[in-house]
């Protein structure tokens, strides 16, 4: 009987629920370690994402700056190459211009040389020098400017005179006074020429004086 009563008391004790402290606030209840670790992981992940976005923005900025610098360097190199080529062309042109008077002297000398000197050895030697000058000009791309029987062009020709001509149309070249030369599209020296202004105008017929006309009428009457 005593054992039965003791067992009933233990059953009642186990069935009772612990009393709750209703006066304790919710904030005072401590979070579990798992919840704390989860919140810290979320904050760390957000920070990493922000750092990644900042790193990508800086990467794009650095890439854009590098591409701009590369393009500017390429443009500067091309500009330098063009300027260098232009400077070389200008230097060549200056040298050729200085040689042109000597070429003119050779041509005038052979045009005015007496016939009895044409077959002499030293004359042939001078003619050989002239040929070498002409070959040098051709190798450098220097060629004479066409002038005779051509229309006058102020880009290639320089007019010495404008004179009437019955044979050459107006605005065309009558004769070349000094030969001009060009190197490619560049004029080293324009051709000095005489330009036709066309045929002279026909003289107007002279009108008979009025007095003579009246005298003729009177005699006829």
How would you write the strand order of the largest sheet? 1-4-5
What is the terminal-to-terminal distance? Answer: 197 Å
Q: What CATH first level of the domain at 46-140 would be assigned?
A: Alpha Beta
How large is the radius of gyration? 54 Å
Strand content: 5-15%
Please outline the major beta sheet: 3 strands, antiparallel
Q: Uncertain segments of ≥5 residues (pLDDT<50)?
A: 13-18, 23-28
Can you count the beta strands? 6
Query: What is the 3D form?
Result: elongated
What letter string, H or E per element, gives the SSE order? HHHEEEEEEH
H/I helix tally: 4
CATH topology of the domain at 46-140: Hemagglutinin Ectodomain, Chain B
What is the correct CATH architecture of the domain at 46-140? Alpha-Beta Complex
In round numbers, the mean pLDDT is: 81
Please give the share of residues in helix: 55-70%
Structural class: alpha+beta
Task: Write structural notes for this entry.
With 221 residues, the chain is of the alpha+beta class. Among the domains are: 46-140, Hemagglutinin Ectodomain, Chain B (Alpha-Beta Complex); 142-200, Roll (Nucleotide Exchange Factor Grpe, Chain A, domain 2), CATH 2.30.22.10. The protein is built from four helices and six strands. It has helices at 2-15, 33-112, 121-139, 210-220, and strands at 142-144, 157-163, 173-178, 181-183, 186-189, 191-196. The strands form two sheets. It has a three-stranded antiparallel sheet with strand order 1-4-5. A three-stranded mixed sheet has the order 2-6-3, with no helix packed on it. A hairpin with a 2-residue loop joins strand 4 (181-183) and strand 5 (186-189). The longest helix is centred in the N-terminal third of the chain and has 80 residues, at 33-112.
């Amino acid at each position: 009987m005593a054992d039965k009563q003791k067992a009933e008391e233990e059953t009642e004790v186990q069935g009772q629920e612990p009393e709750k402290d209703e006066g304790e606030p919710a904030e005072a209840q401590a979070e579990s370690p798992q919840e704390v670790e989860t919140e810290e992981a979320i904050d760390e992940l957000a920070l990493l994402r922000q750092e990644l976005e900042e790193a990508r923005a800086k990467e794009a900025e650095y890439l854009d700056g590098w591409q701009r610098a590369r393009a500017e360097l390429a443009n500067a190199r091309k500009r330098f190459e063009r300027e260098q080529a232009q400077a070389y062309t200008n230097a060549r042109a200056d040298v050729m211009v200085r040689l042109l008077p000597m070429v003119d002297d050779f041509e005038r000398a052979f045009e005015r040389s007496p016939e009895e000197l044409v077959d002499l050895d030293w004359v042939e030697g001078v003619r050989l020098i002239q040929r070498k000058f002409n070959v040098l000009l051709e190798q450098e791309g220097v060629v004479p400017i066409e002038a005779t029987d051509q229309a006058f062009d102020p880009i290639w020709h320089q007019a010495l005179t404008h004179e009437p001509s019955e044979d050459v149309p107006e605005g065309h070249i009558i004769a070349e006074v000094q030969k001009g030369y060009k190197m490619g599209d560049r004029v080293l020296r324009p051709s000095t020429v005489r330009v036709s202004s066309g045929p002279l105008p026909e003289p107007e017929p002279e009108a008979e004086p009025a007095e003579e006309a009246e005298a003729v009428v009177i005699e006829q009457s």
